[in-house]
Backbone:
């Protein structure tokens, strides 16, 4: 432990990780708020195109804010989102429409164009973030999104979840890690921002397996990344697997996760912006893996305080 104070890290501020808020401040000069949208998409891993039953951990209802439901138009969802966030965070001046629920590139291009354009026509929206699966994108869609990205902020956020095919099989993702890497590379080559999403604590992965992913993720041409700890969500296939065989799962406690996550960050490429450290699932959806009433922002503070005590930072051991 040491008292050394570092004034600025390579990403331009004195936080010990490359934060999303700093990324947007440096990019747009102001706070930018994401507004979640449910545009009524489906998912090929549920409708039989890639698979049925979906990923074993998935219950999409658990991740969607209450103001976004597909029965409302995109404009209405954006209006409701702006009202909600103006009340909570008065400083937001611009917004990004975040197509979050299910697979938001899973429709013909002409349908996608209408949906994205309705969001981009909303007065305070300066860009879109599109959550999707790596196998729900193709060259034609990417060409169109490349055009859009010349006028607006565009990011495609791929659910990758693990770098290991044995895990992807086990959780019924319906795609390989190679497929995810190819989608990420194709997207980045077009100058479109790429986000990625990973889950820690998936069954069959040891602590060392998870830490080793830092080196693999560090090599992906991604701009931002989100990490979640595994929690068992009600009404999922995984809930049943957990009930049948709980010893197969090693769910992190909050303290274990803090130590693990700091080691992970120390090995992660410092150029990658880390958007999320943990998930925050409403308690009514949780079957196991609860950390009590701790909010995601409180855990970020706990992790940052611990990093300060250890005088460590993102990328400290990245080679
Ligand atoms: S996690 Fe995403 S890809 Fe998997 S079943 Fe749910 S919506 Fe589909």
Residues:
């Amino acid at each position: 432990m040491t008292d050394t104070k570092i004034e600025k890290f390579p990403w331009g501020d004195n936080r010990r990780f490359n934060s999303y808020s700093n990324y947007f401040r440096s990019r747009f000069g102001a706070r930018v708020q994401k507004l979640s949208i449910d545009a009524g998409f489906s998912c090929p891993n549920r409708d039989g195109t890639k698979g049925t039953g979906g990923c074993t951990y998935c219950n999409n209802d658990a991740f969607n804010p209450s103001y976004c439901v597909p029965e409302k138009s995109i404009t209405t969802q954006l209006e409701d989102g702006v009202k909600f966030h103006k009340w909570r965070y008065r400083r937001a001046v611009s917004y990004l429409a975040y197509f979050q629920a299910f697979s938001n590139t899973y429709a013909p291009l002409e349908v996608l164009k209408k949906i994205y354009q309705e969001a981009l026509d909303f007065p305070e929206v300066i860009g879109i973030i599109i959550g999707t699966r790596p196998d729900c994108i193709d060259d034609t869609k990417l060409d169109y999104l490349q055009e859009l990205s010349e006028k607006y902020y565009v990011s495609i956020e791929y659910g990758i979840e693990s770098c290991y095919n044995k895990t992807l099989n086990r959780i019924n993702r319906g795609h390989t890690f190679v497929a995810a890497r190819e989608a990420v590379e194709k997207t980045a080559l077009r100058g479109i921002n790429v986000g990625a999403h990973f889950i820690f604590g998936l069954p069959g992965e040891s602590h060392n397996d998870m830490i080793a992913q830092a080196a693999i993720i560090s090599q992906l041409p991604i701009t931002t990344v989100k990490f979640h700890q595994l929690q068992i969500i009600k009404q999922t296939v995984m809930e049943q697997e957990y009930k049948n065989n709980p010893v197969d799962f090693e769910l992190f406690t909050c303290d274990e996760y803090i130590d693990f996550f700091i080691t992970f960050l120390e090995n992660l490429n410092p150029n990658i912006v880390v958007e999320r450290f943990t998930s925050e699932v409403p308690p009514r959806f949780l079957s196991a893996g609860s950390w009590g009433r701790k909010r995601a922002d409180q855990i970020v503070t706990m992790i940052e305080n611990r990093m300060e005590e250890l005088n460590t930072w993102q990328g400290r051991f990245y080679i």
In short: The chain has ten helices and nine strands. The CA atoms of residues 68 and 76 lie 9 Å apart. The chain has a mean pLDDT of 93. The beta strands are 32-37, 94-99, 125-132, 153-161, 193-200, 224-229, 232-233, 273-276, 286-288.
